[in-house]
Amino acid sequence: APDAPRVMPPRKKASSTDARGSRARAPAKSASKGDDATRTRPRGRIDAPRASFLSRHANVYAYVPNLVGYARIALAICALRTAFADVRTCLLCYFASFACDELDGRLARRYDQCSEFGRALDMITDRLATSGLLVVLAMEHREWYATCVGLLALDVASHWTHAYVQLMIGADGHKSIGDESFFLLRWYYGNRIFMGACCVSVEVLYLCLHAMRADPAFVGFRALGPLTFSALARLAIPGFVVKQMANCAQLFEACETLVRIDRMAI
């Protein structure tokens, strides 16, 4: 009998496994934006945190204590411009400028914004404001003209020479004093409360003398109660004397240090 025709078995559907037994790979998903950013960022690179206004940053001119320093200059200028026209405005502006001297230092330490520019700005503002007030007193008290000029010269010369020497020896600022310095300077620069009391005494004495001569009828502010300008001036005399002694001491010590440096070079 003739052979029966051969019937081919039906083909099986293609499975997800290829001929080698490996499972077919699913198409890769499209990368997200975050993955793209990660893929394009160089390996080992860490993005630096953005500098805050209340921390150290590149714009030293915009440091918070330096901004306070600019305000001090504006207040001092306003005080000197109104010295003869408006005594009350002069006193308030000058004292506000002097009070900011303590504020800028605290802000610099709090926000870690200490800078060489800020130190120079602080010292120059102090010296120019005090010098301007002494010029006003010299114009008002002609009999004290030579005394005012001498106090101005001592103040500028002692601080400038002291700061110059501290820069030469590599000290950390003009307020850094070594153990070999005069005891008065160690006490003056080592105790901020004592130094502040002496500086306040000098400025209060100058302001009271100016107020008593410019407007004799204006004896004091109501906020001070029974303390008149005359009484405040008497209270400020001891601190004023100590401050002038400290100026003489730092001028003499700075000159001695400069001479010692010159002798070492011989």
Give the key terms:
mainly alpha, 63% helix, 266 residues
Structure description:
The structure is a single chain. The protein has 266 residues and is mostly helical. The chain is built from eight helices and no strands. The protein has helices at 33-40, 64-81, 87-110, 116-140, 145-168, 183-190, 192-214, 229-265. The radius of gyration is 37 Å and the shape is globular.
Give the SSE map:
Blueprint: H1 33-40, H2 64-81, H3 87-110, H4 116-140, H5 145-168, H6 183-190, H7 192-214, H8 229-265
Helical element count? 8
The largest pleated sheet is described as:
none
Terminal-residue CA separation: 135 Å
Radius of gyration: 37 Å
Helix content: 55-70%
Averaged pLDDT: 83
Spans where pLDDT lies below 50 across 5 or more residues: 14-24, 29-34
The helix-and-strand class reads mainly alpha
What fraction of residues sit in β-strands?
Answer: under 5%
Q: What sequence of helices (H) and strands (E) makes up the elements?
A: HHHHHHHH
How would you sum up the global shape? globular
What is the number of strand segments?
A: 0
